[in-house]
Amino acid sequence: MGTVHAKANQHDIGDSGGGLFVFEEPVEMGEEPIPKPTIKLDGVRARVDRVHVDGLNRTKDDIIKNTIDDLFHATDFEDVIVRAHKVRRALDSMGCFRDIGVFIDVSSGPGSTPEGLEVTFQVKELSRVIGGINTTVSENEGNLVLGVKMPNIAGRGEKLQAEYSMGYRSTSNFNVTATKPYPHKPLVPIVSASVYQQTHEYPWSGYRLLDRGLLMDLAFKSSPTTKHNLQWEGLVRETAALSKTTSFKVRESSGPQMKSILRHIVTVDHRDDAIFPSQGSWVQFSSELAGLGGGVAHLKTELQAQQNYELIEDIVLQLSGAAGVLHDMFGTEIPDHFFLGGPTTLRGFQQRGVGPHSDGQATGGKVYWAAGAHVYAPLPFLRNKNGISSLFRSHFFVNAGCLAAPDNGLTNWEWANSARVSCGAGVALRLGSVARLELNYCAPLKARTNDCTAHGLQFGLGVHFL
């Protein structure tokens, strides 16, 4: 009787008993390991007679049955292993379990067939209440997040979580979110609802923003690489002057406002890695309509794109671009505008340093475009792909962009010809799988009179970079 098992990440679920098919790393004995014979598993006929899921307490049987049903369609041993791996990933994506082990054994007992197998999933459910401390990254700012989560509340992957985050620039955020997945429905939708309060300070524009609102989100995938988010957001926004030196134009935007937004975001990601991709493309298009209630009405669209090419081994050329248009109908204020400049957008300029300013404070614009060409390479003399040097990349770039308001009197040619340009080089560092840090020496090549340039070293921290 043989046993095939897959171990969960970082935890050993069980030990195998020296069976016929055992997939483990070879044991180091100080000598050359004896080569194991190669067996073509697709030629071994097999079928699944039974599936057991051990360790269920709160999770409902119906959602488990729908998840494991695919195993009964396997036709050979290799197909069983592949389908068992897919089922394990599906169970893990439900967010109900912290450990999942897979055991495959020969079927025995009543109802067994000569080619039959029994597949057992050993699971450990998450605790009813989970607390944690982690960090996130927002507009060139790190945040400390304190959170508590109640997973799998009703036994079908539902989740309720509350988070409070603090940034080093007096930024704070509190939200309570309820999430309900539908893993077996077409397009695999996830429905969520959030109640939140956010406080942000923008010293480059001279105002403080306080938002209190409700966000409803429907997320689904139309293909494995295409994700959609349909959102409705209702909020009460209060803008206040940050100091006595805040310009009069910014003060005109102060006061409370009510806003209702319909938003659609579509993201298509074909990259092989989100932080340091070597090939593939990424495109995100967002459009929002404000005005179905409240005192603000506008149509806002934005497009961001990225394409990566591996020139030679480990040398990657990245081309990126972004553009946005804001059409104001009534009530649109400075916090709704686009802003450009800073280490995550147009390097070589200060945060929000490009475009219209009033008394040295950025007021934003209604039309913008930006583009960049980057070359990423391993650090010189440090090419160990498995060591700490694999987290670093050398970075060379040229950025260009423009931010303007159509009512500032510029013609189309003048607007297109007012591009700002910068170049530079530096080092990029991977921070986990969601963010990166950049330290670049920047040289602005072209700027306008009101722009705030940043010649020299510039530090950037973010999730998305131009």
Automatic annotation (TrEMBL):
Gene3D superfamilies: membrane protein fhac: a member of the omp85/tpsb transporter family
GO BP of this protein: mitochondrial respiratory chain complex assembly; protein insertion into mitochondrial outer membrane
Membrane association type: Multi-pass membrane protein
Domain Bacterial surface antigen (D15): 152-465
Localization (cell): Mitochondrion outer membrane
Major location (coarse): mitochondrion
Keyword Membrane: yes
Superkingdom of source: Eukaryota
A single GO cellular-component term on record: mitochondrial outer membrane
Alphabetized UniProt keyword annotations: Membrane, Transmembrane, Transmembrane beta strand
Protein family membership: Belongs to the SAM50/omp85 family.
PANTHER family, A to Z: SORTING AND ASSEMBLY MACHINERY COMPONENT 50 HOMOLOG, SORTING AND ASSEMBLY MACHINERY SAMM50 PROTEIN FAMILY MEMBER
UniProt-recorded name of the protein: Sorting and assembly machinery component 50 homolog A
Lineage: Eukaryota, Metazoa, Ecdysozoa, Arthropoda, Hexapoda
Gene of this entry: LOC114246552
